[in-house]
Amino acid sequence: GLGVAKLLGTTGMVALDPGFTNTASTTSEITYIDGEVGILRYRGYPIAELARSSTFTEVAYLLINGELPDAETFERFKRRIARHRLLHEDFRSFFTSFPSSGHPMAILQAGIAGLATYYEDTLNPHDPYERELATVLLLSKVPTMVSYIARRAIGLPLMYPDPRRGYVEDFLHMTFGMPYQSFDIDPSVIRALDMLLILHADHEQNCSTSTVRLVGSSDANMYASVAAGVGALSGPLHGGANEAVLRMLDRIQNDGMTTDEFVRKVKNKEDGVRLMGFGHRVYKSYDPRAALVKATAHDVLARLGSADGDRKLEIAMELEEVALNDEYFVSRNLYPNVDFYTGLIYQAMGFPTTMFTPLFALGRLPGWIAQYREMISDPAKRIGRPRQVYTGQIERHYVAMHRRE
Ligand code: ACO
Q: What is the pTM of this model?
């Protein structure tokens, strides 16, 4: 809750609001959420309409520029993003300098920050031309980077981007294609991933986005700010939840535990275990994204599913059923969030578990960029600098080592 405390030794009052439950950090025109009823809109457009009718690239344009593009503008935008997908050849050695077992989020964070060293003429956030170029380079190169990390982890040759392919199709081709072999991917899989990326594209002032804004408020360049966002997203209470859900389902399946038993453990807070993929700071009703993901999970698993995937989907649905009828979850307004069902889809598509959170990062990228640009262009912008309420020792004096008790 919101507490007000007087700072010791200074004049004036500061509000103490742990976790920023009630404190707005900014005004914004990008994303609207009403957590009580479960509404999410990007630039005024309901998420379900965008998920049904738009594409991830168009949504990226919308978030960043504020309006849907006309046909010619959209073609130009897509062409620019397609042209810049190649990574500098030196980046190959960058990837091999990490242990191949290293977590992809750590490599991704370093890689994005490292882009600043290759594109030094795109670092000034107050120059509209440089800002535009940094935007395009990030949108173009991050998918290539994510697929390189995935390939390197299992020792497959890296695949160059192909500008003739669409954004999501090319990402899948770089990740799952083979040199000199034709690439047959079910168009419904491309469409499903495209939709999942749309659902992740922005979510106003969440932990990673607030991080991007705070870092950028010092006029740090877009790569440094987005890389910091990747760090924030890696935590299991944020983007890392999609990976944690799969590990939880694995555990239930392998330990032969019933969903009732697992839910009991959660309610008793045994070993701090939580029902991963459940609960949200803002949504106090069903996350509108989770409903769309759940429907997609059924479709994708019906097409690509394995016996293992099907069993995990059953466990997930049982968990949801048990939780939604349990006083503990009902009284705390805990519903499935966007990440409860995504992992099952990613797994059916062939992504290893450690790639789930990088996929979230790929989706959130346009949101981070749009929010960074809104922050940097705001005439009222000041460096972010929260206050604190000091609770440590009052003044005391240094005691020589031999005199200490
Ligand atoms: N399982 C069990 N209990 C939970 C869960 C959960 N998933 N989430 C919240 N609770 C309980 C808490 O224990 C607390 O109960 P208490 O009052 O008895 O102590 C109460 O609900 C309130 O929880 P807070 O932690 O105060 O809620 P907060 O808004 O700070 O946290 C968060 C939100 C981090 C999402 C939380 O619900 C959580 O940890 N969920 C699991 C991780 C997860 O799925 N994260 C993804 C979030 S969505 C995203 O990043 C896309």
A: 0.93
**Whole-angstrom Cα distance, residue 394 to residue 392?**
7
Distance from Cα 283 to the centre of ligand 1, integer Å: 11
Mapped onto helix, strand or coil, the DSSP state of residue 33 is strand
| Alpha-carbon gap, residue 97 to 91, rounded angstroms | 10
Q: Is the ipTM of this complex over 0.90?
A: yes
Please name the residue whose Cα sits nearest to atom 8 of ligand 1.
279
Q: Is 265 in the pocket of ligand 1 (CB under 6 A)?
A: no
| Helix, strand or coil, per DSSP, at residue 27 | coil
The model's pLDDT over 203-237, given as tens digits with 9 standing for 90+, comes to 999 999 999 999 999 999 999 999 999 999 999 99
| Degrees to nearest 5, angle at CA 282 with 279 and 287 | 60
Strand pairing partners for 4?
A: 15
Q: Where are the alpha helices (DSSP H) in 234-383?
A: 241-255, 259-267, 288-304, 307-324, 327-331, 339-349, 356-376
Centre of ligand 1 to C-alpha 20, Å, is 15
